[in-house]
Amino acid sequence: MQATIKDIAKATGFSVATVSRVLSNKKGFFSEKTAAKVNQVAKELGYKKNMSATELVTKKSNVIAALINSTKTNFSDSIIKGIQDKADELGKTVIILYAGDRDARAQKKALTTALERSVAGILLLSVDLSPENLTLLKSARTPFYFISITFQDTALPCITSNDHGIGYLATSYLIRQGHRRIGLAGLDFSDSYTGKLRLAGYQAALAENQLSAHSEWVQAGDYSYEAGIAALDAYAQNSELPITAVIAGSDMVGIGILNRASALKIPVPQKLSIVTIDGTDLCRIVQPPLTSVTQDFYKMGYVGLERLLENAAGITYTQSELTERKSVLAVKK
Amino acid sequence: MQATIKDIAKATGFSVATVSRVLSNKKGFFSEKTAAKVNQVAKELGYKKNMSATELVTKKSNVIAALINSTKTNFSDSIIKGIQDKADELGKTVIILYAGDRDARAQKKALTTALERSVAGILLLSVDLSPENLTLLKSARTPFYFISITFQDTALPCITSNDHGIGYLATSYLIRQGHRRIGLAGLDFSDSYTGKLRLAGYQAALAENQLSAHSEWVQAGDYSYEAGIAALDAYAQNSELPITAVIAGSDMVGIGILNRASALKIPVPQKLSIVTIDGTDLCRIVQPPLTSVTQDFYKMGYVGLERLLENAAGITYTQSELTERKSVLAVKK
DNA sequence: GCTCTTTGGGTAAACGTTTACAATAGCTTT
DNA sequence: AAAGCTATTGTAAACGTTTACCCAAAGAGC
């Protein structure tokens, strides 16, 4: 028996209309005295607005759904923090929905949950929608915005890092430190567009310095810790490492490489320098702390929500920057 | 203009009642032919149920709200995974709400969001509600259940690890490994009951072995990385460490201790053994990997949801176990 | 004293579902 | 043939809000 505005109306002697007006603060439609009385009775009765009813009649809601990918939530935290902060400023409330991990069924469930509740908008944090789910999303009238994911289809509204720039930044930094044989590890070049762009950035930086990558320098992977392990094992097949530095596709890849290197007694950074892509807190807590191309995840969330609400189209980029820690050694020429 | 059941009714020639029955699959109230037709038209029109309307009339919902604490989400991930899996089995959907970090305002907002949407139940993942928010929660008729948090008030329904047991387990393990001077670091003994219980378990194990703790052995903190750093600095004030092993209040504390130790050239585990409490993936990725008392977070989520729905009262404990990695050295007597 | 605003508040419809209750048709029983 | 089922469908009320529209009283201006 939740108390309703009817109960308040009865108790105060006012009509439901008046009660509704003071409770939703429609200024200028009631007197102070009325408001005071209504509010007091509402409190006494433990009144709580029934959002279903409100949303049913107003046909709008101030909730934003954020769909997240169940894996790799280590940077989602920052994105969500950004979203949350912006939402607070705007008086929106955000609900987070798990969209599984490349699982079309789970994606669909999360998507319909959001759509059925007619949320004001949907944010998708690195969720790579299956084609039919993408169609579903597009056919709904709910605004949506992707965060931290890059598509071939540039028409999809999203905010993300410039992945070409990331590859370029990491590579040219290592070149400036004197490295010439530079690996690239743990990126996925097949279905993910992100991987291809970073690779292109890497190659561009190399080419600009009259270098070119040997094929064994680039080791594909799935951005995981295990991919890092596998990459280092591939590099370490011969007694001499073919590279002096490696760019890891993610922090976890970087840590995998680091740990495998230490298991194989390859000192980092003396024998192998590492630059990691992402720059989450994980970089700080390993030893040596990993130099990284740090993405501005917080900002992605913060301005992502902004963009969603202004119905922006196209791609927005956030700035990445190189954060020097202790995993890169400058080599003397 | 989302299509509604009215539109489908018009298009098919049936009444809204029939359409509703087909769409919500009230078996035995319609013929196959009818169902086929209705479903087809629904699909054509891109019909999506309006949950607000449904919830308004049925006064029930199958969504579970999970409130989480914005910090320390590193183990929340496992808990959420558990919740999610159970929810999938049960056909429930879960929405995650951020409840800030010991911020009564944010807590209240998350709480009212959940309450206003009349969710089927509320799960609170290590959120330490302020007194007034607790009252608010209790006064609502919505079932709730705490996960991974212990209260003095044993009437509060929750599932968590046995914190006394954790302290005892870690300590007695170290004693069995031959340690006699054992520290305890990074726990909060003031407002959090958890810290007190773990301390009691620690003391119990010590006492059982005719040992007792020197006051400088236990260093309070707030479960953070920085608390670990501070604890080690406290231990390392004299040239000789007062302890041979330390129990870290959380993985982050353990890593803080580890890194500070390595900065000070104190080899782990040769000069200092570390047992960490939590046992998340973080333990695996540092060097040496940290031996831990591993809590079963996944299970907390999984059975937490179960318990919530069966309206269980009182405390349920999940089992913790000691996971040996590489941060503890057995000392010869 | 009369009309015109302004202020405060009431009436009732609408939002999209679900479901109790009725109604019909076609059977089966007796 | 009357009565009773069963299967299928329809009618309409209900859920708790919001809000367009209406109304009355109180001043304001003449």
UniProtKB/TrEMBL annotation, chains A, B:
The keyword Nucleus belongs to this UniProt entry's keyword annotation: no
PROSITE patterns attached to this UniProt entry: HTH_LACI_2
UniProt entry keywords in alphabetical sequence: DNA-binding, Transcription, Transcription regulation
Domain HTH lacI-type: 3-58
SUPFAM superfamilies per UniProt: lambda repressor-like DNA-binding domains, Periplasmic binding protein-like I
Endoplasmic reticulum in keyword set: no
Molecular function in Gene Ontology: DNA-binding transcription factor activity; transcription cis-regulatory region binding
One Pfam family cited in the UniProt record for this chain: LacI
Protein's name in the database: Transcriptional regulator
Organism (species): Liquorilactobacillus satsumensis DSM 16230 = JCM 12392
Higher taxonomy: Bacteria, Bacillati, Bacillota, Bacilli, Lactobacillales
